[in-house]
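Escalated from tier 1: pyridoxal-5'-phosphate holo job.
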Amino acid sequence: MDNAEIETVIVTELTTITNGAAGITAETNIVRDLSLDSLAVMDLVMALEDHFDISIPLDRIAETETVTQLAGVVQSLQTEVEA
Amino acid sequence: MGILDKFKDLRSAYDDVKSAGSDPFSVRFDKILSPTEGIVAGKKTILLGTNNYLGLTFDKQSVETAVTALRENGTGTTGSRIANGSYGWHARLERDLAAFFGRKHAMMFTTGYQANLGIIATLAGRDDHLVIDADSHACIYDACKLTPAPVTRFKHNDPDDLRTRLRRLKNKGGNVIVVTEGIFSMLGDKAPLKEIVEVTKEFGAYLIVDEAHSMGVLGKHGRGLAEECGVEDDVDFIVGTFSKSLGAIGGFCVSNIDDFDLLKVACRPYMFTASLPSSVVASVVTSLEKVKNGELLREKLMGNARRLYDGMAAAGFSVGPDASPVVAVQLPSPEMAIAFWNALLNEGLYVNLALPPATPANMCLLRSSVSAAHSHEQIDQAIALFTKIGLAFGVIEPERIASFG
Ligand SMILES: Cc1ncc(COP(=O)(O)O)c(C=O)c1O
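Tier 2 regenerated the structure:
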């Protein structure tokens, strides 16, 4: 799956979590722009784990801020699974 | 920019809480009269938020042993056990704990927080994988920050979800460590431990159970949820605290694992902090005896727990899924919870206010913890006060109150 597709999934999940916040894009800063607390971010991670059937360790999330960066983490974890 | 500016959201939340009346995060007890009563702002108050499950804080024998140990060994150990050595009472309690749980090894910590921090973070190495229940206590989350191991969460009390997550880790190498709790501190619900054990075994993972709220409370002999579920042999590490049913302070871990003694020279939250003073340890040794022979206390506790849980449910309050000594009433908003908490305190009832993010699913809770030392009258009075204020605040409706009593 390419980065853009993963981004779309993340944006959809974020829209659900934020009860339909508008204007979420690839550049959205997940914590700052959406005021998600750490628990909400961890729940997002859980949802993404289930969507992509991968394991996303919490420390990998600490490095990410934007949707694009998170998509990058998901993609690299997917590649690890396939390797 | 000020060093504490990063907490400006916390500042405003905290100020909001305080502006509604008393500060729930720094209630002052002028005097503690007994395990179930104290004086707050000059008023006699029922203590229903102390985790003092068996009411042992004023146990005569425990107090006397502590006083003797205090006189004989002084006020503190002034250092850690690896640097300053152990006292006779330390060795004695570790022996007693191992015997109580029927395990080969025990080690104790200065708090239960440190026990979880130390055991989890030390067991999970860089190549291992830590898998925790999503509603884990803060100290388990903090252990996740200390460990070099990758951490994933499974859905609260959901063994099937745990299976899915363990499957994803299957070919990643390293050991997998699963962490859950006996009774969860906020809602008082129990882990489905039998099923969690099955899944954990299926994947050859290790299991740590924090029995902080269930030791002394569950199981015929008070050994916690693992005893109640008959799975003690399959729980690799039990962690717990002396600060709840044992009425003191401190934490511990017991296990049958080989080379357990290595933990005492590898576990930093054990090594680099002062050990408990003899007085505290001596009181725990004595209280542990009471816990072991505490079948009657446990019966009384469960009777009280049921009485409060059923009473709250019948009044129309939304309570947790299991009747346990932790009874949490869910309220619709932080403002309501704060006002409700203040009203209870003004009427002479002390419970815990629990707000997001310290609660599961962002719930606003008034958390009660029942003791074997509560009288039926105290429990009934608590239900009556909750009901009165709940009606006044419109949280419950008069016509929905089931008759009970
Ligand atoms: C589930 C759980 N584990 C550990 C602890 C920590 O125990 P202690 O108070 O001994 O640090 C607590 C209590 O705060 C708890 O609720």
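Chain B has a mean pLDDT of 96.
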